[in-house]
UniProtKB/TrEMBL annotation:
Domain of life: Bacteria
Listed name of the protein: L-threo-3-hydroxyaspartate ammonia-lyase
Signal sequence, start to end: none
Gene coding for it: thadh
Domain Tryptophan synthase beta chain-like PALP, residue spans: 31-319
Gene3D superfamilies: 3.40.50.1100
Lineage: Bacteria, Pseudomonadati, Bacteroidota, Cytophagia, Cytophagales
Any one GO BP annotation for this protein: D-serine biosynthetic process
E.C. numbers: 4.3.1.16
SUPFAM superfamilies from the UniProt entry: Tryptophan synthase beta subunit-like PLP-dependent enzymes (SSF53686)
Gene Ontology MF terms: ATP binding; D-serine ammonia-lyase activity; L-serine ammonia-lyase activity; magnesium ion binding; pyridoxal phosphate binding; serine racemase activity; threo-3-hydroxyaspartate ammonia-lyase activity; threonine racemase activity
Amino acid sequence: MAANGCIRIKLYMNHQVISKEEIALAHERIRRFIHRTPVLRSSFLDNLTGAELFFKPENFQKIGAFKARGGLNALLSLSTEELLHGVTTHSSGNHAQAIAFAAAMVGAKAYIVMPENSPKVKIKAVEGYGAEITFCINSQEERERAVQEIILRTGAAFVHPFNNYHVIAGQATASKELFEDVGKSLDVVIAPVGGGGLLAGTALGAHYFSPETSVYAGEPEGAADAILSFKSGNIEKAPYVKTIADGLLTTLGDKTFPVIRAHVTDILAVSDEEITQAMRYLWERMKIVVEPSGAVSLAAVLKNSALFSGKRVGIILSGGNVDLGNLPF
């Protein structure tokens, strides 16, 4: 298994890399459809951590999450013939919304597979974009089986939630904007990690647009597959899955993992209690609505403040699609 992990890294380094030009092209391609989200500051959180924090609030993005970037880039990269029979994907929420939204923008039909226990706010948003939803039991096997049935029935093009180079390039545009807008270089940028699309994109963004910046990730203790994978060199499954960060439950992919191994410094685990506290700070002190998954990166900085003290730290808040009837505080 260790040899397989090394082979994947070697393949990435030799010919699977997403170029700087491809990320710039992705940004140009999606620019008219997305918000250029601002950079926010908080003197309270600066004082609490001893760092200078620069927040990239993708909860202000179209569909309420960074996923709009990757979804749009993926669909805008498909040909007219590929879009003819629609597009399909599986997702618990934010990628589902991204593909439904992007499909509406390009005039294609969207067929979305969602776990039956997906947050209601995300289900309603997908329906609102006109997508056809198929519900399934919340397991990777059932998600993939349902998608395959849709492909056989409709001929729709499949867009993976994170293990897709066009998706990764689209997600990289968030960190690209952050580096451009902060002006002076950042010492660190940190993003949450689930399947790794945002983290891989963030890592490539730093590699190309701010190479002096170190990249970290935050991950829930209750879905800690990325930490295990990062340490072992192989794609691992979490020993157990139970966390309020419902957007970070998936395992890494063979396209995201090699990028993360090559360009990420470390992955830091946080508990649900620490995620909830970070989420509360963002709501109460910065007055912004962030979902649990979106607060994970701040939670990691708060927990490891000694590591980041005295540094300029970019924090990507990944989304704000929280069920207001089911808040953790």
